[in-house]
Amino acid sequence: MSMVIGDALSLLLFRLHSGRLLGINLLKVNEIIPCPALTKLPSRHPNVRGIATLRGAAMTVIDLARAIGERGAPLTRTTVV
């Protein structure tokens, strides 16, 4: 039998293109959507894939694999943000 004392942490688990398993605090996730069209910025940080417009607001899309030192994967129809 196990007991949870205090606050429990719920994680959204996902795999990078490389197969590496990662988790994000579920309370920090608003929604998961197919990757929208991205506008590339001319002098962006290498981890930034671009800017998307979501319900009229600009959203920066970051390549999480690159951010943790892995090789980034191409965007496909199954890519989500």
From TrEMBL:
GO biological process terms, semicolon-separated: chemotaxis; signal transduction
Source species, domain of life: Bacteria
InterPro entries the record matches: CheW-like_dom_sf, CheW-lke_dom
Domain annotation CheW-like: ranges: 8-81
Pfam families the record matches: CheW (PF01584)
PANTHER family with a match to the protein in the record: CHEMOTAXIS PROTEIN CHEV (PTHR47233)
Protein name in the entry: Two-component system, chemotaxis family, response regulator CheV
